[in-house]
Amino acid sequence: MREEVIIVAGGIGSRMKSEQPKQFMAVHDRPVIIHALEKFYRWKPDMHVVVVMNESFLDHWAQLREHNFAGKDITTVEGGDTRFQSVKKGLSKLKYSGVVAIHDAARPCVSVKVIGDCFRVATLKKTAIPVLQVNESLRKIEADDSSISVNRNDFVVVQTPQCFHTKLLKEAYKVDFDALFTDDASVVEAAGDEIHLVAGNPENIKVTEPSDLVLAEVFLRG
Length: 222
Prior knowledge:
With 222 residues, the protein is α/β, with parallel strands linked by helices. It contains 7 helices and 12 strands. It starts with a strand and ends with a helix.
């Protein structure tokens, strides 16, 4: 089956309190999004990539793309108002009916092994997402603002890339947006499909706060 990836890069830098979105911030001498794409090209140099980008940064992305990935099979599409809409637009630009990964541009430290594992499991089982065990204690906030302890072994932390059979994911995304759709797996699960888990890598953090750039720098120098 042919593999493709949609890189979701629609952020505008609000939580970073910066005019420059997090995907364009430099870490280990290059923008975050460049590191993210390179990980997929290390796994499969000829794969088709769809980058979903905020309209305001299309020109800047075009320059970065030409400088770093000239000759690569990359399709760029303008993002939507929500992540859900952005992924939906990305799905419309896929070329094949195989397996597609959805990956956050702000995750530059995903391992090539995790990418490969997710694609392999999804090829066999139709779905695959990387997760990590929870190492800290958890509490649940109740309706009256009290809290109760919960068993951390009942929970995992979800990462990307999330991989699915292309036809399955396109079908799932025909529904209307719901606030409970926090990632692609939640959309697919709502459509009635089982989600299969793959071991993620701890370094695969999502760059959201300024301190995350420091961690990403350490991991990429690793």
